[in-house]
Amino acid sequence: MGVVLQYGKTKGQDNLLELLYKMQCEEHRPPTVALEAGPSKMSILMSPGAQMALASFALMCVNATDGIPTIFSIPTFATMSAPLVDRVHRGLCVDVDGEGTIPESLRNVLSKWTPDDAKNPKSGIPRILWLNPSCSNPAGVTTSAQRRKEIYSIAHEYNLLIVEDDPYYYLQENQPRIPSYLSLDVDGRVLRFDSFSKIVGPGLRCAFVTGPEAIVKKMEYAYMQSSQHVCGLSQIIIYKLLKKWGSTGFEAHIQRVVAFNRERRHCALAMADKWLKGLAEWSVPTGGMYVYLKVYGTGLKSEELNERLMEAHKVAVVPASGFYPRGAKLTDVAVLRISTSMADAEVMEKVMKGLSQVIQEAKTAYSKQKTDRADIVSSENCM
Ligand SMILES: Cc1ncc(COP(=O)(O)O)c(C=O)c1O
Q1: What is the DSSP string of 274-295?
Q2: What is the number of alpha carbons within 13 Å of residue 269 lying toward its C-beta?
Q3: Which percentage of the chain shows pLDDT scores above 70?
Q4: Three-state DSSP state, 47
Q5: Taking every annotated instance into account, which residue ranges of this chain make up the domain Aminotransferase class I/classII large (predicted)?
Q6: Residues with CB under 6 A from ligand 1
Q7: What's the CA-to-centroid distance between 80 and ligand 1, angstroms?
Q8: Are 138 and 323 spatial neighbours (Cβ–Cβ below 8 Å)?
Q9: Which of 89, 198, 232, 338 has the fewest beta carbons under 10 Å from its own?
Q10: Residues linked to residue 294 through DSSP beta bridges, in sequence order
Q11: Nearest atom in ligand 1 to 51's CA
């Protein structure tokens, strides 16, 4: 106890780092483990949440240059498209469909440059590819194995660093899980972010970064000047849990978490079928904890729809417009993220029923508004 209450090593507690290193090797078989000691060799750093690690990494890039052109799949995790990254990194957007990030869309974004431009510091070519490949937040989409290979090969061609923001990796229902970018990383170009938030508890603020030693070391220096290290108690809790479980127990725990999320998500999808048919479109994810709704033809913004839901029905969803970096246009569509893990069947029914009412009312008002406007225009034309 005395040890965990003392200041500790910034990188993390040795015994936990050792376990995590083993876990990454077993789960991802990263080719970078076999590299000679050097800048690309795989290294691990504990972080007080993946969010903190992502934000520190973003700030680090800003310090290094004056904002690095970064490509995001959209919609993207809000924190990353929020003012910090949005303002300082010139965000470029790649489209996502039901199979995840679309490689052709990435090629399209990069088509303004040639791979040789990567050698020119002034070319303005993107340097970072920010991906959230499994059960993404907010779209709930998992990028297929084939696409991951294609995307990795494009990143290799254009010398992009891949930020693999993957806290929902273990929430995939695909068995075996779709291999991560880390597992494809022969070059040392993947910086991977794992978190215990979605598989143990977010209050522990315990996550870890895996990637090339040179970058991980810089992040460690940044933490020395800020958080110092992850709370010692959180680290020891995670260590004891992992130690007690072993890899078989860990997998059994993961399958319980997956089953819990599957039940909640299926319940949300059934309620969407019951209440929102014809009123909204939604994703049908194969894992994770989000269902993503698109609502057309209400004339309302995502935030306005949510406000009406809260006022009339005392429940809330997440207006997902913030998941689009500046520059990405949302025209006549409200986007809403429903977190399925937090609501039991009763609450979920309240949410979906409430949504159906506010959407119906808004659509009726909007089409009346349009008809009234058309009547005014046609009566003005008659005069
Ligand atoms: C895509 C994504 N990355 C990172 C995080 C942050 O996770 P943590 O709780 O470890 O900070 C979240 C949290 O919801 C997320 O959805």
Answers
A1: HHHTTT-EE---SBSSEEEEEE
A2: 17
A3: 91
A4: strand
A5: 5-351
A6: 49-51, 77, 132, 137, 165, 167, 195, 197, 202, 207
A7: 10
A8: yes
A9: 232
A10: 281, 335
A11: 11
